[in-house]
Design goal:
9 strands; 5 helices; tRNA binding; 30% helix; 237 residues; single chain; RNA-binding; 4-stranded antiparallel beta sheet; alpha+beta; transferase; Ribonuclease PH; RNase_PH_CS
């Protein structure tokens, strides 16, 4: 039995709250059980210097955790003078995932900065960030469309992410912290709404695992992401 009493293929309760931020062009508070992430999409009338004059835009991301997002207080990264390697890796993953489903030409020479701030962590913060960031980005595009700022349809597909792992010998979907901290293997999957792969990160924690086990995790991830994409679509109707 999983600590949360869920079946192997069950997601935690997932909810999206759009327009959570009054000021951002797009925003979404996403909850995966006790993991809560605020995602905001901010439009900037500029692009990175290396993109100037190319007629296309850019989407990038920043990720961070509040000091009491976890059971013990952690120092703000700003006070240490640098971001952790983990934060940098996650925000790059978020940016890559969003760009995979966006036509950057449609933005013109503009940048959208997506901030993912973890208010409360209970495992799966990167996957929740990606899934919620898509909704925030969608709403930013709606804001731009209402002002005739787009050259076409920028959003080519949905994108969502989920974690899977091997916990006490069983392949399970959507690891919470007690499972993640004791898993024999864990993986993060990012797929588009059409089921195409954006990124897979898989790690053996307590010994190598087989190709057959990886296939089990992938099948669970496809099921979970299909459910998340359906929720995204219902949210932005």
């Amino acid at each position: 039995m999983r600590p949360s009493k869920r079946q192997a293929g069950d997601l935690r309760p997932v909810s999206f709250q759009r327009a959570f931020s009054h000021h951002a062009e797009g925003s979404c508070l996403i909850k995966f059980g006790n993991t809560h992430v605020l995602c905001t999409a901010s439009l900037e009338d500029r692009v990175p210097p290396w993109l100037k004059g190319q007629g296309r835009g850019w989407i990038t991301a920043e990720y961070g955790m509040l000091p009491r997002a976890t059971s013990d207080r952690t120092r703000r990264e700003a006070t240490t003078g640098h971001q952790s390697g983990r934060s940098q890796e996650i925000q790059r993953l978020i940016g890559r995932s969003l760009r995979a489903v966006v036509d950057l030409q449609a933005l013109g020479e503009r940048q959208i900065m997506v901030d993912c701030d973890v208010l409360q962590a209970d495992g799966g913060t990167r996957t929740a960030s990606i899934t919620g960031a898509w909704v925030a980005l969608h709403d930013c595009f709606q804001w731009m469309r209402a002002r005739d700022m787009l050259r076409g349809e920028p959003m080519k597909d949905n994108v969502a992410a989920i974690s899977c792992g091997i916990y006490k010998g069983e392949a399970v979907l959507d690891l919470d912290y007690p499972e993640d901290s004791d898993a024999e293997a864990d993986a993060n999957f990012v797929f588009t709404g059409k089921g195409q792969i954006v990124e897979i990160q898989a790690t053996a924690e307590k010994g190598a695992f087989s190709e057959e086990r990886m296939a089990e995790l992938t099948a669970l991830a496809k099921k979970g992401i299909a459910e998340l994409v359906n929720l995204q679509k219902l949210t932005v109707l």
